């Protein structure tokens, strides 16, 4: 029974869940691994980075689905690990954070990035330079930093210039990452695609084909990996250009499909 969004479109999505692109998870749960982006995919976008919330039932459904897949379900996000973890507590799923640069494996071991003094100085300087730019938010994620302009699109060009010169100061270990109303500097050592490949070398992901689901530019790297490995790539929401093989219309609809897939059979 649907508890939210009873539109015809949503019901059609639900009816198609078993027959649609994700129905394969029910048919062959031992053959597939699921890699899920967070913002704009599992949870709805909000005006500010801290303004997001986890919809009721999502944690329980992810837990059930993970069990159904023998644990082969991982989050792959631009967030840092502590923020993502508090969104899905008490679950502690395998996860790649900072766009793939950091990982927590299924066995709980961590692969983290140390931020150095120079990067801390750079983040402080970004905050100082933009302090009077009303609506701009600098999100400190440890070894990555995001400059948000969702509430202040008039600052986009200025932020592009500031982030470009900050990237030069950060040096070759970092790269620029564009996203929805955001410009980020993140470690260049791994992408979301590389994180998916790394998970696929480890139990319980090894030997399975990946299904990657995301909504933004950063997710294109994991779409490409899924396509290259004979898996499946799904974009949430329409995009002018994407490597994804299929589209799911919104995060709401994806959650409804996941809820159905998570139901006991
Ligand atoms: O890879 P994701 O899990 O999708 O994370 C990507 C970025 O998401 C967050 O920013 C985006 O969501 C915010 C909250 O809805 C929104 O206000 C912002 O405009 C979006 O760009 C997050 O703040 C970033 O750190 C993530 O990298
Ligand atoms: Mg996203």
UniProtKB/TrEMBL annotation:
GO molecular function: trehalose-phosphatase activity
Protein name (database record): Trehalose 6-phosphate phosphatase
Lineage: Bacteria, Pseudomonadati, Pseudomonadota, Alphaproteobacteria, Hyphomicrobiales
Enzyme nomenclature, EC number: 3.1.3.12
Similarity comment: family membership: Belongs to the trehalose phosphatase family.
Cofactor(s) in the UniProt record: Mg(2+)
Keyword Hydrolase: yes
A Pfam family this chain is assigned to: Trehalose_PPase
InterPro entries, sorted: HAD-like_sf, HAD-SF_hydro_IIB, HAD_sf, OTSB-like, Trehalose_PPase
Function: Removes the phosphate from trehalose 6-phosphate to produce free trehalose.
Organism whose genome encodes this protein: Rhizobium helianthi
Presence of keyword Metal-binding: yes
Gene: otsB
Domain of life: Bacteria
Keywords in alphabetical order: Hydrolase, Magnesium, Metal-binding
Catalysis: reaction(s): alpha,alpha-trehalose 6-phosphate + H2O = alpha,alpha-trehalose + phosphate
Pathway(s) it belongs to: Glycan biosynthesis; trehalose biosynthesis
């Amino acid at each position: 029974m649907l508890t939210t969004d009873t539109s015809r479109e949503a019901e059609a999505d639900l009816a198609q869940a078993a027959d649609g692109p994700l129905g394969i998870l029910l048919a062959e749960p031992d053959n597939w691994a699921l890699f899920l982006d967070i913002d704009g995919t599992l949870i709805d976008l909000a005006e500010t980075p801290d303004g997001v919330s986890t919809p009721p039932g999502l944690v329980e459904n992810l837990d059930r689905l993970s069990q159904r897949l023998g644990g082969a379900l991982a989050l792959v996000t631009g967030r840092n690990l502590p923020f993502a973890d508090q969104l899905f507590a008490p679950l502690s799923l395998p996860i790649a954070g900072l766009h793939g640069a950091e990982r927590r494996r299924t066995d709980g071991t961590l692969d983290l990035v140390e931020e150095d003094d120079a990067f801390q100085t750079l983040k402080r300087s970004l905050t100082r330079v933009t302090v009077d730019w009303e609506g701009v938010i600098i999100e400190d994620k440890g070894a990555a930093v995001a400059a948000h302009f969702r509430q202040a699109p008039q600052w986009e060009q200025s932020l592009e210039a500031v982030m470009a010169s900050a990237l030069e100061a950060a040096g070759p270990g970092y790269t620029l990452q564009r996203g929805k109303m955001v410009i980020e500097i993140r470690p260049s050592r791994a992408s979301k695609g590389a994180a998916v490949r790394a998970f696929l070398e480890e139990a319980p992901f090894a030997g399975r084909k990946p299904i990657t689901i995301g909504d933004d530019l950063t997710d294109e790297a994991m779409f490409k990996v899924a396509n290259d490995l004979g898996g499946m790539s799904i974009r949430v929401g329409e995009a002018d250009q994407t490597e994804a093989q299929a589209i799911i219309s919104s995060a709401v609809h994806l959650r409804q499909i996941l809820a159905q897939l998570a139901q006991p059979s």
